[in-house]
Amino acid sequence: MTDTETSSSQLAPTLSAVAKRAGVSSITVSRVVRLPDLVAPETRARVEKAMRELGYVPNLVAGALASAKTNSVGVLVPTIANSIFADTVQGLSDKLEPLGYSVILAQSRYDAAREDRMLAALLSRRPEAIIMVGSPATEDGKRLLRHARIPIVETWELPIDPIDAVAGFDNYEAGVAVARHFIAQGRQHLAFIGGDDPRGTRRWLGFHDHALASGLRPPRRLILERNASGSVAAHANLPGVDAVFAANDAHAIGFMAGLRKAGLLRDGPASAQPVAVIGLGDLEMGRLISPSLSTISVHGDAIGRTAATLTLERGGERRIDLGFELVLRDSG
Amino acid sequence: MTDTETSSSQLAPTLSAVAKRAGVSSITVSRVVRLPDLVAPETRARVEKAMRELGYVPNLVAGALASAKTNSVGVLVPTIANSIFADTVQGLSDKLEPLGYSVILAQSRYDAAREDRMLAALLSRRPEAIIMVGSPATEDGKRLLRHARIPIVETWELPIDPIDAVAGFDNYEAGVAVARHFIAQGRQHLAFIGGDDPRGTRRWLGFHDHALASGLRPPRRLILERNASGSVAAHANLPGVDAVFAANDAHAIGFMAGLRKAGLLRDGPASAQPVAVIGLGDLEMGRLISPSLSTISVHGDAIGRTAATLTLERGGERRIDLGFELVLRDSG
DNA sequence: ATTGCTTATGATAGCGCTGTCATCAGAAAT
DNA sequence: ATTTCTGATGACAGCGCTATCATAAGCAAT
């Protein structure tokens, strides 16, 4: 018998199976797992041996029910692929996993109905907190969260009326900052390209309002699919534009590819660009391409880590502005 | 009283609270949630009203314990940020979420010990399957999975001795394909840059073996940090090299940035490049930059969706090779 | 009237743990 | 010798559900 854990039923061994084998009560086995200091060394050794021999893996589902603690957090993002939200998920899970929390991940795909379903699905697993990108799109979603009586962290925004805690930055001000920079550069004809999700729209609003307030003609806005390829052709729809704010770096890089084809991209500094381009996200890639991409840098992983902290500590500041940074390189 | 669900204790309402309010037994409420067809329409309406009034959210933790079905799958990836694995996670969760499964996500961070811990943590939540990138790095990890008696899907590789199911492609052959292409192009001095994780190493091996078998001098191998910035400087360490296979597109783009600085990058076609570069992953960005990036295209999302299918269907082919494609553009 | 079948509902017993007391030595303090 | 405390262990109930079997009513067929 090479595998001591063979034979016996197909079923996973339980606490009491281990207990029986070690000649102790099951509560003692439970303590060996959770509070080993309360168990005498010899007993502990005996129990640990039995656990090894049986290949015991604790059943956290049962544990969670009994203790009313699931040690899990629900995380809801619009999408995880090709997205800066992955940084946030990484940040929060790096903080949470070592503490024994598991991350239950759900994607809304920018769909309000799916978001509500995912929220309900998450909540029925009784996570100890919910971290989401943005705010619930519907009143139903908000009510669900408000009644859950667990920490809720909204991220990537600074909602006026948050459900509970917030870790984000001011998308409106990001738009303002870009517009201000373009204007200081002497650009006259501004445009905004990107999605029309809530955060993109806030950026657009800030961009738009500041341009108007500075006496410019209203900027143009082009709503694009979420993949960058559409932005390659965007330039054709923006005649006369000399400065573009892209809602994310992927769109910015796509747009620059279009400019290159049109012969409107220089390898020189921003001042030499016929059309200035600024993105958002500060993808590593933006630093590497030529001309290098100017961008609004936001710290996606810091948002995740901060959100994690907010789920762990009740009390203290519940609204954290992580800010952003206008990083100027050669594109704009 | 605007909120009917207020007052009453702080505790979340249970099945039997709903039952009492609706004047039925709790099992009937359970049926309304799971098997509504078994309940008479009027009874169902009464129960649904009570659920709404109380703001009832089913407790899947209890349900899972009672039914021995958690409706969850554990997913283990090395990392999720800036990574093509995000596509795989998206693919599998798009397939699984509509079926009522939740994704429990864990990251190993390319650390064998952390991987083992995460595997044990996942397993203790009794997922109905585990999907992971690659194979467990340790024997302990393998044993854990083998004893779990649930579907296990290893992805992004085609291990010789899989634990259960596999959805991936042949990394060795990808290396061979790139070497073959370089050689056909008349390149003489090959190099490989990238990480030394198992998949990267397989690619290197194929690349190396094929170069040798074709009579070339042994390719050089440069092991880099996981972020692309290191690859910018890589060229200095590879004098005389005229063709580079980067283990992923980010490294390839970083390397090209270095070449550009060194004046070794042309906007022309591959034949005009002093140093040919081929990446792996087929990032959208690679298409957009100039010169456009040649790459091994792998379908990360298809891997995820296939893995999901493999967890749902026992029986049938358990080893699926999704293949790869050498996509030739201007960089090599 | 009896049997059999279907539909709608309920009673009961757990699922595998943990919280909350007990219990019982043995040591220390009175 | 008695009390008190500490350390180690256990008994027991119960977390909120579901599986399983039972029950009752209604109705058709014998």
Can you tell me about this structure?
Chain A has 3 domains: 1-58, 434 Repressor (Amino-terminal Domain) (Orthogonal Bundle); 67-169 and 300-323, Rossmann fold (3-Layer(aba) Sandwich); 171-297, Rossmann fold. The first copy, chain A, is 41% helix and 16% strand. Chain A is built from 13 helices and 12 strands. Chain A has helices at residues 15-22, 26-34, 41-54, 60-67, 85-96, 112-124, 139-146, 171-184, 198-213, 229-232, 249-261, 284-288, 300-312, and strands spanning 72-77, 102-107, 129-133, 152-155, 165-168, 190-194, 220-223, 243-246, 276-280, 294-297, 319-321, 325-327. Chain A has a 6-stranded parallel β-sheet, with helices on both faces. A 6-stranded mixed β-sheet of chain A has the order 7-6-8-9-10-12, sandwiched between helices. In chain A, α5 (85-96) runs parallel beside α13. At the A-B interface, α4, α5, β2, α6 and α11 of A face α4, α5, β2, α6 and α11 of B. The first copy, chain A, binds a DNA duplex (30 and 30 nucleotides) through residues 14-16, 24-28, 30-31, 34, 38-40, 43, 58-69.
